[in-house]
Amino acid sequence: MLLLWLICGFVLVSVAFFIPGDQAEVWPNLNSAGIAAFLYLLALVGYTMRKPFGRKAQITVWAATLVTLGALGMHWTGMDSMSHWQQKTLLSIREVIGRGIIRAEVPESLLTVLDTFHHQKGKKATLQQVFMNQYPGTKVGDNIHKPNHETDSLRVYVSSLSDTLIAVTAQEMYVKGRERSFKNFNERVGMVQERFTLTAKGVRHESEN
Amino acid sequence: MNPKTDSQHEFSSEYLQLLVAITGATLLLVFGFERLFSHQRFTPDVFIPFPWIVAAGQTIDDGLQMFSGKLPTIMSMSHRLALLADMLVVFVLGPTLLLMSWRKMRLEKEQKGRSSIRGLWTLLFVVGGVASFSVVIPAIPIAIIQRSVATSLFHAQAVQTNKDYMINDINFIALYAHQHKILPKSMGGGEGSYLGFSASRELVSTENGEYIVSPSPNQCAIKATSKLYPSAAISVVVNEAGNLREWTYTGPFE
């Protein structure tokens, strides 16, 4: 009988484990096997605690089983939800960092252009000429951001260039933005993207994704 | 059957001694295990009585991978099988050996007989007990600790998120303050001075906080107070070059 119960338990839990298939995360497999194990344990306790065990022993074992399974269930579901929350939080922190870097670095370079533009002496150069002095040879579509470190994934593309207006589009290469289907400047999809437009009156900001 | 006599059978001194021995062995095993493997990362290569901790570790690891722009790792089949083996030991093998051997010994006692393989049943009872109690003993404390850790983590993260968003808001105010200093008076600017700068209504009151801007000729002070945690505040100064300096955090932001 012991062997039969063991075989049934192994088969039941193993089959349940493989039902969700080979998914990226192992949670669906574990959860499915956990439900099967829970049902198996209830059946096992029900079977083994029959007579000749007395009422006191039955109540004690059932109570211990249910309290333990309840505590394990709480821990299990708590770890499931908390680890997913932590994963989501990590990604949202990365998004905040990405936007923070964009908002701290990109407008600063445009304000340098604006400062130079308004403090010219003699013959006045256009915004575009001032910008080109700062970024020689740049044309629309070029990335003007020099990476600060190996994993720096920020791109700052010149999206519009004229005598009176300069627009740059700052984009993260792998940090997801608000809309997953948003088409980015460089054809990627769903990444953080912010646009800054410089005119003689100053910088205008637009958070695109 | 007399109920008193019946319960005396189930909780006999022999049985209780066995139970205490199993609990002691389990505690030794748990602490020994912890000492042996405390320096290792959670990997399913070693037996872990709580397989969901490995799954949680993988989920967080995936988050870190994505944080760094890498693809999440997919757990190999051998690791999945190791997790399944943990599940089988904890939820099938242990309880089945414990309860079935207990039942067998109880039945033998009832029939007043002594089986020649009683020693084997006792051994199975001990093995099953160690496997089961390694999960049962810590189950309730870890469930309580986990809830309390989760609550404090959620709170700490909510405070940090509010702080991050407020720093972003301050960056924008600083940008427009610096821009005001650059622009000539003919365009509404300060022409080399922060004086006259006032942030727009959308900038001084966002969903994250309230911002008070105090411009002087060479610098512009910004005092931010959180809307979610009123005792939390940030003070910072935009210096002459337009850079943010002298960051001060108070209250929960400290």
Summarize, please.
The complex is a heterodimer of chains A (209) and B (254). In chain A, 53% of the residues lie in helices and 16% in strands.
Q: Structural class per helix/strand content of chain A?
A: alpha+beta
- Give the total of domains of chain A: 2
**Mean pLDDT across residues of chain A:** 92
Helix proportion of chain A: 40-55%
| Oligomerization | heterodimer
Spans where pLDDT lies below 50 across 5 or more residues of chain B: 1-7, 37-42
Fold and architecture overview:
The complex is a heterodimer of chains A (209) and B (254). Chain A is α+β, with helices and mostly antiparallel strands and 209 residues long. Helix content of chain A is 53%, strand content 16%. Chain A has a four-stranded antiparallel β-sheet with strand order 1-2-3-4. In chain A, helix 1 packs antiparallel against helix 2 (27-48), helix 2 (27-48) runs antiparallel to helix 3 (55-118) and helix 3 (55-118) crosses helix 4. Chain A is rod-shaped and about 105 Å long. Helix content of chain B is 60%, strand content 11%.
